[in-house]
Design a protein that fits this description.
The protein is mainly beta and 267 residues long. It has two helices and 15 strands.
Length: 267
């Protein structure tokens, strides 16, 4: 299957429009979820699967990202948004003889200072520091490096559409001197459409460039999510697929899978 066919399948999946009903509150929450710096407490649980990893394409990996998002109101004009990514990893045969590993990976902690209201032109933005914390519990699940750098996001919401980009760059500043230094750029362009019934269709990439090895990793991903209730708990449920347009020599290839469950705690 070539890259053009992969893009066509992802686009066709995003056109699927199941019939459902939802109130205006659920629709508003669905739109807030497309904004990385919305003043909404949420706890996304994101399960990712990738395969064909390593020089022999024998490796496979499951990663459950626990990603609490907590906004703080600094004053009438400014918010501080804390976004944490803590991965729980299970992997096998990522290179010949590697065997299997499971446990925690390294944590990425981002802090965005963001205006409480959009600009006159309708832009929503935030910027601040990003930290890499070596919380991995296995030598093959951690970089053993402390890292720091800048992060920023900019987006516009016009009717049902949300478009924007989030990015960061991390340099290693301390850690095991025997491990490779880190200098990586992360870019996440995204385009979302939210329906009156609180379904959201998103096309995005989560691309990484490694300045130490000059390698790109570029997936294209289509995701469908729905805000609903489980009992009294507001949640967003979703799933999608991705295809690796570009990958490092030992990185994942072909198709991948994403499933999401987000707990919502509106104020």
């Amino acid at each position: 299957m070539n890259k053009r066919q992969a893009l066509a399948i992802i686009a066709a999946a995003m056109m699927w429009n199941p019939i459902a009903s939802a109130g205006e509150a659920e629709q508003d929450l669905a739109r807030q979820l497309t904004n990385p710096v919305a003043a909404l407490i949420s706890v996304p649980l994101q399960l990712n699967y990738n395969s064909d990893i390593g020089p022999a394409d024998d490796g496979r990996q499951w990663v459950l990202n626990v990603q609490p998002v907590i906004p703080f109101s600094l004053n009438e004009d400014w918010n501080l948004i804390s976004r944490t990514i803590l991965p729980i990893v299970g992997q096998q045969d990522i290179f010949p003889g590697a065997g299997s590993q499971s446990g925690l990976g390294d944590t990425v902690q981002s802090l965005f200072f963001s205006p409480a209201a959009p600009t006159a032109g309708g832009w929503i933005w935030g910027a601040g520091p990003v930290l890499l914390l070596p919380t991995g519990t296995d030598d093959l699940l951690t970089t053993d490096k402390w890292g720091v750098g800048p992060t920023a996001v900019a987006l516009r919401q016009q009717g049902p559409w949300t478009s924007g980009i989030l990015g960061n760059h991390i340099w290693s500043v301390a850690g095991d001197s025997d491990r490779r230094d880190i200098s990586t750029t992360f870019l996440q362009p995204f385009l979302s459409y939210t329906t009156p019934t609180a379904w959201t269709y998103t096309l995005q990439s989560e691309s990484t460039y490694d300045w130490e090895t000059s390698d790109w990793q570029v997936p294209i991903r289509g995701v469908i999510t729905k805000v609903t209730r489980i009992g009294n708990q507001l949640v967003s449920l979703g799933g999608g697929v991705n295809y690796w347009l570009e990958s490092a020599d030992n990185g994942p290839e072909g198709w991948g899978l994403r499933l999401t469950l987000t707990l919502l705690f509106p104020r």
